[in-house]
Design brief:
The chain has about 180 residues and is mainly alpha-helical. The protein has one domain (about 1-135). Helix content is about 75%, strand content about 0%. The chain is built from 6 helices and no strands. The protein has helices at about 1-25, 35-55, 60-95, 105-130, 135-155, 175-180. Helix 1 (about 1-25) packs antiparallel against helix 2 (about 35-55), helix 3 runs antiparallel to helix 4 (about 105-130) and helix 4 (about 105-130) packs antiparallel against helix 5 (about 135-155). It is globular, with a radius of gyration of 19 Å. The relative contact order is 0.08. The model is unreliable at about 5-10 (pLDDT under 50).
């Protein structure tokens, strides 16, 4: 346990330094607020998840921690890809004299959805750590919001497709909703 605390302290120091640089960038309007909120939520979620796993569920180990870090890193990759897609669509529109500037909002939409996801996870972690203090209605409200957003996007993306032959049906929220 002492080793885990030592690793956390070093990680916490790096996280604190990153937070200071991020706050400074925000202060000089170099990083949008939504992105800063997302970065803070990711850090808080990882911290609360670590506390929950290590001290309350007694399930924390280095493999679980590494998987959590990889998962969080992939969130940033996902957001980056969403912005690249939006930028690519906008650029193609410019080349063919079509205003597709709205497509840059693809990245912001993905960021907002991921932020709601992180807030939900933080509240779920806190509910395990201190169940008497976290209002369960708040966790449920965030889950409902998250499901509404997912179902709306899945309805747009998967419209008129045959879910039975789709290659990602096992991971698709739209397909899971149809099964229930």
């Amino acid at each position: 346990m002492k080793e885990a605390l030592l690793k956390f302290d070093i990680g916490g120091l790096k996280l604190s330094i990153s937070a200071v640089f991020t706050a400074a960038a925000a202060l000089f309007n170099k990083v949008p607020t939504l992105l800063i909120l997302f970065m803070a939520a990711v850090a808080i979620d990882y911290l609360t998840g670590w506390v929950k796993a290590a001290f309350f569920l007694k399930e924390w180990n280095s493999q679980t921690g590494l998987q959590g870090i990889i998962k969080k890193a992939m969130y940033f990759v996902l957001i980056g890809v969403a912005f690249l897609i939006g930028y690519g669509i906008k650029t193609i529109g410019t080349k063919i004299s079509l205003d597709l500037g709205f497509s840059i909002y693809i990245g912001w939409y993905v960021t907002a959805v991921m932020l709601i996801n992180e807030f939900t996870s933080i509240l779920e972690n806190l509910y395990v750590i201190m169940p008497e203090k976290v209002p369960i209605w708040l966790v449920k409200a965030l889950k409902v919001t998250d499901n509404k957003l997912d179902n709306t996007i899945n309805g747009i993306v998967c419209k008129n497709q045959n879910c039975e032959i789709c290659s990602i049906k096992d991971r698709c929220n739209n397909y899971k909703t149809k099964e229930e």
